[in-house]
Write a structure and sequence with these properties.
two-stranded antiparallel sheet, alpha/beta, four-stranded parallel sheet, 256 residues, 39% helix, Rossmann fold
């Protein structure tokens, strides 16, 4: 069984061409891309009504939505290519956990277009680092791969000035308050001189509560950064977070 598993992994890594089939539906794809045209049209692009500040999908246009007001104060502006729902959740999951590194090219190109559209004009890109042991186990840092792709397209350098110094729990299982507590002391800024009066863009895969980006942005500004933007593949819609918060409050109050 070990031999069979090894052969499957070897073929997937060294022989299989991900452009042979659509990463969403699995059907043969002859368009020369990772996602077929049909599935591409159905992806949840986040290009309609969004919060002006955090860039999440909202029901009405707002300068600050309920999820970012008084929460994302150190991040000056955030944008995401997709809304974190439907098939995009599947794509990001296999990108992060199933060795689908090739999707960094697909996502990175989309993020590059969004970067240019929003005129970020950054001095440097900063990817969200992983704890060293966790990165060794996964084999790669998906945020680094995205940053490398965007850097290659925009010629904006990557600032290697942030490291994760503490093992943390998986953020997906925590609410915003617990996420912030979980991230206390987790990131360390090094090479501070490179940040002096600079505009930087944090690169990550998903924005949920925004806690990770806020903690990092605060640390970067304390170290001299002038403006800190956030660019992600996808973000959770504002009303989804608001509804979850209401349900959580009801449970605490014993009303549901």
């Amino acid at each position: 069984m070990k031999v069979v598993a090894f052969l499957k992994r070897f073929l997937r890594l060294h022989v299989f061409n991900p452009e042979w089939s659509c990463s969403v539906c699995g059907e043969e794809n002859f368009d020369g891309g990772f996602v077929c045209k049909k599935c591409e049209q159905n992806l949840p692009y986040n290009d309609k009504i969004v919060c002006e500040h955090c860039g999440r999908k909202t029901e009405i246009r707002e300068e600050y939505c309920v999820t970012c007001k008084e929460n994302m104060v150190s991040v000056d502006k955030a944008r995401s290519v997709f809304s974190y729902e439907g098939t995009i959740r599947k794509l990001i999951t296999i990108f992060k956990y199933d060795n689908a590194r090739y999707l960094a090219e697909y996502f990175g190109d989309k993020m590059t277009l969004l970067y240019l559209k929003n005129c970020f004009n950054a001095d440097g890109l900063i990817y969200v680092p992983m704890e060293e042991k966790a990165e060794r186990k996964r084999g790669y840092n998906q945020s680094r791969l995205l940053a490398e792709r965007i850097s290659s397209k925009t010629e904006v350098p990557i600032f290697e000035c942030l490291e994760k110094t503490k093992k943390t729990l998986r953020q997906a299982r925590l609410n915003r308050k617990d996420r912030l507590k979980n991230l206390e002391g987790a990131f360390k800024v090094k090479k501070r001189k490179i940040l002096k009066d600079k505009t930087v863009v944090i690169i990550d895969d998903v924005t949920t509560t925004g806690a990770t980006a806020e903690v990092i942005a605060k640390a970067l500004k304390k170290s001299g950064a002038k403006l800190v933007y956030l660019l992600t593949v996808a973000s959770t819609p504002a009303f989804n977070i608001a509804n979850k918060n209401k349900q959580r409050d009801r449970r605490k109050n014993g009303t549901i």
